[in-house]
Specification:
By secondary structure, the chain is α+β, with helices and mostly antiparallel strands. 48% of the residues lie in helices and 19% in strands. The strands form two sheets. Strands 2-1-5-4-3 form a five-stranded antiparallel beta sheet, sandwiched between helices. Strands 6-7 form a two-stranded antiparallel sheet. α5 runs antiparallel to α7. The longest helix is centred in the C-terminal third of the chain and has 45 residues.
Length: 269
């Protein structure tokens, strides 16, 4: 009788994927995603600086779907245009004169805010009015635009970028949408908090001016006017200089009586 040679091994069949293992893997991934969202919310609540908060949110948005970059833009309702305010690669707001380098992100922002939903750009040439030569100069090859909207308020968008061509899965789109809702709500709350603080500063300044006006005879008109120009420069956003001119009836000329933010030489001029 012939015997089979010893040591002969049978071919192993490919192991079937256990649906339970797949489900468990999906749950872990989902838990990681929710943990990231909670971390985003926690950091926003603890933050006291708007620029650093935006940078942190951009980093988290990029990490959620393993992107190469994320740019957060703000929608300027008065000028009806998008403005880049933070990226995951650079702390602080992008330099405004360098907005041309964010042309694609701004175009995506306009599109997602008009659509009111997540939009995908599988290739930059899909964007309207895109220059083919210009596309070759940037590493980005695909984008995912996420609108940042709270109620009827259009805050801007999170534009997530990839340096390789990409087709986005429904799960990635869904997660980006959920993260966008978190970011929008966080930004709205942060913005409301800043506006409340601004109103408090304005109220305090007006109260001080009111008290000074009631004591003009004691403190003198000069101190009252100085308080007004100092307060105006503090409470008006981006104001660097303020001045009150009074009319010299004899000379028929305006004379600066109170200044704030000017040098002494400027006052004499």
């Amino acid at each position: 009788m012939s015997q089979e040679p010893q040591g002969k091994t049978r071919k192993k069949r490919p192991a079937k994927t256990d649906p339970g293992v797949q489900a468990e893997s999906g749950i872990c991934s989902r838990e990681d995603f929710l943990a990231s969202l909670n971390e985003m919310a926690r950091e926003v609540l603890l933050s006291r600086d708007f620029d650093s908060t935006l940078h942190t949110l951009a980093i988290h948005m990029a990490r959620l779907i393993n992107a190469d970059d994320c740019c957060i833009t703000r929608w300027d309702t008065e000028r009806e245009r998008a403005v880049p305010v933070a990226t995951s690669k650079k702390p602080g707001a992008p330099d405004l004169p360098d907005q041309d380098s964010f042309a694609d992100e701004l175009a995506v922002t306009t599109g997602v805010l008009e659509a009111g939903q997540v939009l995908t750009v599988d290739g930059l040439l899909d964007l309207p009015d895109t220059n083919e030569e210009a596309v070759k100069q940037v590493p980005t090859r695909a984008m995912l635009g996420v609108p940042l909207i709270v109620g009827e308020h259009k805050l801007g968008a999170a534009v997530i970028s990839f340096n390789a061509p990409r087709r986005f899965s429904p799960e990635e789109i869904e997660r980006s949408e959920q993260a966008g809702a978190y970011v929008a709500l966080a930004l709205w709350n942060f913005q409301q908090s800043l506006e409340i603080q601004q109103r408090l500063r304005e109220s305090n300044a007006l109260a001080k001016i009111g008290r000074a006006l009631s004591e003009t005879e004691r403190v003198g008109i000069g101190k009252v006017l100085q308080l007004i120009v100092d307060s105006a420069r503090e409470i008006i956003p981006h104001a660097e200089e303020s001045v009150i001119h009074l009319l010299d009836r004899e000379e028929q000329a305006l004379v600066p009586e109170a200044i704030s933010g000017f040098s002494i030489g400027d006052k004499k001029k």
